[in-house]
Amino acid sequence: MNPTDFTLAGARAALDERAISAEELTRAHLDAIAALNPRLNAYITVTAEQALAQARASDERIARGEAGPLEGIPLAIKDLFCTKGVRTTAASRILGNFVPPYESTVSGNLLRDGAVFLGKANLDEFAMGSANLTSAFGAVENPWKRAGDPEAKLVPGGSSGGSAAAVAARLALGATATDTGGSIRQPAAFCGIAGIKPTYGRCSRWGIVAFASSLDQAGPVARTVEDCAILLRSMAGFDPKDSTSVDLPVPDFAAACERGVKGLRIGVPREYRLDGMPAEIERLWQQGLDWLREAGAEPVEISLPHTKYALPTYYIVAPAEASSNLARYDGVRFGLRVEQGGDLKDLYERTRAAGFGAEVRRRILIGTYVLSAGYYDAYYLKAQKVRALIRRDFEQAFAEVDAILTPATPSAAFAAGEASDDPVTMYLNDVFTVTANLAGLPGLAVPAGLDAKGLPLGLQVIGQPFDEETVFAVGRAIERAADIRALPAVRAHA
Amino acid sequence: MSYTIEGETGPWELVIGLEVHAQVVSQAKLFSGAATEFGAAPNSQVSFVDAGFPGMLPVPNEECVAQAVRTGLGLNAHINLVSRFDRKNYFYADLPQGYQISQLYHPIVGAGRITVELSDGSTKEIGITRLHLEQDAGKSLHDQDPSRSFIDLNRSGVALMEIVSEPDMRSPEEAGAYLTKLRQILRYLGTCDGNMDEGSMRADVNVSVRKHGEPFRTRCEVKNVNSIRFVMQAVEAEARRQIEVWESGGTVDQETRLFDTARGTTRSMRSKEDAHDYRYFPDPDLPPLVLEEAWVAELKAALPELPDARRDRYMRDFGLSAYDAGVLVLEKETAAFYEEVARGRDPKQAANWVMGDFFAALNRTKRDIADPPVSARQLGALLDLMADGTLSGKLAKEVFEAMVETGEDPGAIVERRGLKQVTDSGAIEAVVDKVLAGNADKVAEYRSGKDKLFGFFVGQTMKAMQGKGNPALVNAVLKAKLG
User: Fold this and answer.
1) Which of A418, B75, B245, B299 is the most buried (most CB within 10 A)?
2) Mind spelling out the 3-state secondary structure of B403-441?
């Protein structure tokens, strides 16, 4: 067996049994990156030397019997997490040369538990995008291919496209990601892997380049639900440096995966049956419900009446917060500065014009507009009210059910150019995922099947606040029932 | 008679409201652990939060919140148990985040009021609209280089309280009295040091004028006035400017102006049309600030005595006049000094000495109450020497001057200079005998009815004793000897 084919849990066992060393495991991944990253572009920065040094340190700890929960596990870190001494770009020219003097809390937690960092994963610029096409460091290619169409380059989804592609192609055992409107779940679904956005407040946001503060949440992507559970346990935890982080104990999520779903009531929101939804998505959803019923759960139709307002609400709240969060990239203290004489205003205009890509500029403009005097009440304030209603929809639903099952995405991965010309079409990718962000709920994407062309499709499990355990249990039941054996066309040692 | 300014068309009334920015006394900034000391080397007190680095998040500093609550309590104001932080967005080089965290919609302190004293002895209540917490910006230095500006972020993120008054003031004097009183309360509370020349207290002055009985006319805001005297001057200058505009047929436009201290006039800074659109919205990095009632009650119980209460106590317990009590409580440090001098002694005599010789000495030596030429303990010891008869009032003044000069204790000065008052009646009798013997003619005159000569004998005796004779004893002995 090739070391890059291990699951994270399998690799941990192999390391503990000395079947493989951490250095060997890391080297195998670095070799795979060297071979495939030029094509997939999943990593912006590869930290080979640092990774090998970390792996050797892991081997020493393993030898001393001091292995941490993630000891020797090679991971990709989305390039939105600040990593001390390692360039952190947010996939933007404006941070192209930024080397943080600090480590984000989440990546620091992973290092504490013994993880090895292979490098920084590509993403949409400032995590704004659903196809990983907006990165200043180039697009990421999805390692999956449509049957009979090896030429078409499919998108990996976004914004955590690099993380998802790297994990799917066996260029990492797992990866950190972030999710503001679906940026973990949609690329996980497009790349045929699992990914969870935990409850807002579960993971610290400290040291993660902010997109929309009230929606951003870090989470893992990995090839199995259990691997996500293992990663999340290390990433999560209260952080006094983040006022929105929540002081609750972090459960053993991996143990929860095997709880089973017997007796659980699974909500099926009728508003998620969209007009014109592809039949195979509809079938997949039904299949998921059948599996859960067979495993002892009871599907229950529920109503989330404000669902149709979720996407417009999201596209007001997120750009509004982004327009303010991105004001600090002004060329004054760090990052790109474009100086050609002139005054302070010229410095701002030149730096930001050269530093931000089109999608980021679009969202800054939308956000600035919806917050401006005279429009604030009509847009931002109204959106906040709708957001409260969406949250209440879920509260009412969770009085009846334990978890909710929906499709993860309205389609399988598409090719670059097929949908990206129109930003509004692109925004529709988030239609099933934004609600969990608006309501702050945990949402897991789990591979559940393949479309007619052999591309992976995912289902989404939404849970109650801080009840990731039930979400993992439901996700694992689907994963077990689906038992997908197909592999992406582009992968290490294919 | 209310204050008016006489224009060509008759008297004009002034309407004034103040927005005071007061820097919170605390070890750390509002949302970061960086220090707040004044005068540190540029950019030496800056955390990554203050510099707006990627991924940095604000965490409220509990002490800054407590200081705002104490201030609210000191201003007799409503404490909002739930408040929120908002972002005020604008671009400037000394504003690293691109927004200032402030409290527009839900401030921590609501309506309150303070009473100010006016020079005619009357008092007036001034309403407080609100108090909110916000971050200060950094400082732009434009005078270090011909082509570049430099930024010092030491002040970036320091906690400020913005204290907004109602438009209740009607004269420059009232504006000055309000600011004086506010500063006094903040200093008593220890929530702001009130040092206007270091910028830890600055005022934005809102001024409009109107004819008697009219509703408010358009106001202008004079920004960043940094002394009480300048506030009073700015009010008058701006009012006169507006009167001129109205009387020449123009209209006053709402705008932001600056006070030119050299010329004593205000000039336009930006018009309403150029006003920033700050795009305020609730800061998503900060959940609502929720205070527990018990915590507020604890802070309230631990509040120091405030100037009005202390003044009333001096009048009630010490029998001081309203004026004297008012002067002594003006500065917290002066009041503390006075109380130490007065403790266990005659409080009126203590007040006379503190306000008389001691204040004169402070002025003359150009020192202040924090570093006085004579300590409260020393002044108290001097009062004790008068009380036990060791020193006469006249000698005490001499000893006091020597204390100011040398910094020595009064006991040591009395000892070394032999200034001790003579209370030994035998010694006084011996001197009196000599004086009477040497002035036999005057004694005869006195005995024949020239009573006025008694003073002459007192003077001669004191002179012979170099002023050290106890005046009462000298009098008694002379009376007895002269028959």
Assistant:
1) B75
2) HHHHCCCHHHHHHHHCCCCECCHHHHHHHHHHHHHHCHH
Who among B54, B279, B285 is closest to A244 (CB)? B285
* Residues of B at the A interface, defined by Cβ within 8 angstroms: 48, 51-60, 87, 89, 91-93, 96-99, 149, 151, 277, 279-281, 284-287
B98: left (phi over 0), alpha (psi -120 to 50) or beta: left
CATH architecture of A3-257+467-482: Alpha-Beta Complex (3.90)
Using the beta-carbon criterion (under 8 Å), do B279 and A102 form an inter-chain contact?
no
Å between A107 CA and nearest CA of chain B: 13
Domain limits of chain B?
5-298, 305-417, 425-482
By C-alpha distance, the chain A residue nearest B55 is A207
CB A328 within 8 A of CB A348: no
- pLDDT of chain A along its 494 residues, tens only? 799 999 999 999 999 999 999 999 999 999 999 999 999 999 999 999 999 999 999 999 999 999 999 999 999 999 999 999 999 999 999 998 999 999 999 999 999 999 999 999 999 999 999 999 999 999 999 999 999 999 999 999 999 999 999 999 999 999 999 999 999 999 999 999 999 999 999 999 999 999 999 999 999 999 999 999 999 999 999 999 999 999 999 999 999 999 999 999 999 999 999 888 889 999 999 999 999 999 999 999 999 999 999 999 999 999 999 999 999 999 999 999 998 888 999 999 999 999 999 999 999 999 999 999 999 999 999 999 999 999 999 999 999 999 999 999 999 999 987 765 567 667 788 889 999 999 999 999 999 999 999 999 999 999 999 999 999 999 999 999 999 999 999 998 87
Catalytic residues of A: 78, 159, 183
B279 neighbourhood in chain A, CB within 8 Å: 323-324, 368, 371-373, 376
CATH topology of domain B425-482: Arc Repressor Mutant, subunit A (1.10.10)
Query: CB-CB: which of A208, A330, A334 is closest to B98?
Result: A330
Helix, strand or coil, per DSSP, at residue B256: strand
- Domain residues of chain A, as ranges? 3-257+467-482
C-alpha A102: how far from chain center: 22
In chain B, the residue whose alpha carbon lies closest to the alpha carbon of A339 is B148
Where would I find the H helices in A261-403? 279-294, 310-325, 344-355, 358-371, 382-397
Could A328 and B57 be called an inter-chain contact, meaning their C-beta atoms sit closer than 8 Å? Answer: no
